[in-house]
Structure to design on (469 residues):
């Protein structure tokens, strides 16, 4: 039944622990506690299995991966088995000693998240004092060490007006790449949607800022741009399709088609403790359920774009319709398209207060609309 | 801020290109295919691009690469030259090659 190709990349979530409390955190509402995290030996085995399976790149992520004291050892192991390693970090724990240790272990690239361009606003969004200053210092260390830098800028209605400054900041820091990532509304971000979703007008201005900067900075700064689904006509090709290119391993060892998939009910996601990655990738029910096009309902099943966007995002379909097997409402052809209208109306009203991310701190019941 | 236009490398016949330290061009045994690994970027170059990239050694100017390829494929130099420069400029703009 499976015609799957080998995966290209592994997102290795080392820990859900993080000094920051961003209200749009992409981690699930049910965060893994530190005591459940995989040990060093298990991560080493899993990295070897990933390389054998055909994975080319590993993204060490979290939470904050630097909370793990064994990170450099795992980066070294990744290099030894032939994986290209990226560090995706908040950088507030990144000092000269740790960076030196990681570079020596074979780390190839560092991505640092920034919450805004002004310290007071950035620290408020991150929910941590002096975070912005620490990030700027860490970014300079990355460039000093000769490592390529990506600035990851998560954008929303409370910082979108600073996009031109964010682009200039990325150039000034010596970044080769800038990810302008509009918040995607799952988990924590969905709870905080009224505080975060920009208006159509804000979004259009941001898009023209990006287009102008891309032309001006060609060959200097690559800008990747992730548009919010809520204003799209067609859904994004989420993860390049379920079980097609990526796999994610949670801190406790669950193997997932994407970092948000644990929020889907009715799945038995395999653990690295139960099977090896190749078995899980090719044969598990979870990876095969939405793989390819056979599972698709209309209007996806007969759509000429079915192998371009792969039906959009399963987690978003579930979050907005209660059924993960429906067409993503981000598509204008979805019969559930109306559920986005109320959200877009909210964007015109004053923002709500943030619900900050914390372990054990998720609201017991969440609704998408109010 | 300095003029960013200064930072862009424009590929010409005399340009010498190399892979930056953190870009890896290698053959992937699992897929039987050449791959380019760069920061959070992965390219699967087509056959033409692979032949060009194999000639990148950090010391050979683009003109020499064109001469080698023109001889190998028995094709006019100016045609090869335009194709090679277009491929290389695109890879430079993506940060996969540097001067």
């Amino acid at each position: 039944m499976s015609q799957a190709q080998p995966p290209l990349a592994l997102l290795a979530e080392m820990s859900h622990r993080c000094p920051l409390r961003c209200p749009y955190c992409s981690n699930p509402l049910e965060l893994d506690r530190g005591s459940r995290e995989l040990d060093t030996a298990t991560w080493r085995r899993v990295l070897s299995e990933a390389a054998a399976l055909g994975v080319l790149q590993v993204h060490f992520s979290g939470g904050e991966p630097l909370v793990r004291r064994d990170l450099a050892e795992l980066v070294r192991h990744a290099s030894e088995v032939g994986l290209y390693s990226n560090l995706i970090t908040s950088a507030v724990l990144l000092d000269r000693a740790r960076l030196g240790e990681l570079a020596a272990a074979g780390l190839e690239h560092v991505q640092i998240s920034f919450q805004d361009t002004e310290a007071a606003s950035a620290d408020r969004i991150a929910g941590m004092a002096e975070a912005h200053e620490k990030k700027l210092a860490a970014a300079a260390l990355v460039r000093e060490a000769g490592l390529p830098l990506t600035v990851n800028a998560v954008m929303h209605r409370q910082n979108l007006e600073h996009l031109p400054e964010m682009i200039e900041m990325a150039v000034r820091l010596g970044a080769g790449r800038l990810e302008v990532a509009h918040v995607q509304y799952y988990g924590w971000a969905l709870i905080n949607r009224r505080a975060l979703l920009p208006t159509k007008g804000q979004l259009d201005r941001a898009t023209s800022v990006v287009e102008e900067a891309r032309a001006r900075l060609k060959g200097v700064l690559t800008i990747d741009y992730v548009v919010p689904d809520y204003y799209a006509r067609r859904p994004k090709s989420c993860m390049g399709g379920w079980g097609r290119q990526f796999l994610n391993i949670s801190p406790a060892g669950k193997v997932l088609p994407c970092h948000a998939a644990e929020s889907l009910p009715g799945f038995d996601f395999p653990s690295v403790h139960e099977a090896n990655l190749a078995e899980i990738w090719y044969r598990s029910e979870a990876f095969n359920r939405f793989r390819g096009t056979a599972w698709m309902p209309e209007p996806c099943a007969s759509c000429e774009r079915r192998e371009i966007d792969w039906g959009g995002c399963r987690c978003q379909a579930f979050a907005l319709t209660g059924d993960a097997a429906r067409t993503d409402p981000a598509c204008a052809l979805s019969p559930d398209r109306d559920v986005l209208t109320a959200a877009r109306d909210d964007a015109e009203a004053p923002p709500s207060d943030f619900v900050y991310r914390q372990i054990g701190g998720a609201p017991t019941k969440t609704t998408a609309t109010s | 801020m300095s003029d960013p236009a200064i930072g862009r490398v424009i590929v010409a016949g005399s340009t010498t290109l190399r892979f930056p330290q953190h870009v890896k061009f290698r053959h992937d045994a699992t897929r039987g295919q050449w791959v380019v690994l760069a920061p959070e970027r992965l390219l699967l170059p087509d056959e033409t691009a692979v032949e060009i990239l194999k000639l990148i050694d950090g010391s050979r100017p683009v003109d020499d690469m064109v001469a080698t390829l023109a001889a190998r494929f028995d094709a006019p130099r100016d045609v090869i030259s335009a194709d090679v420069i277009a491929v290389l400029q695109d890879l430079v703009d993506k940060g996969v090659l540097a001067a």
Q: What stands out?
A: The interface with chain A takes residues 1, 4-5, 7-9, 20-22, 24, 28, 30-31, 35, 37, 39-40, 42, 92-95 of chain B (CB under 8 Å). The mean pLDDT of chain B is 90.
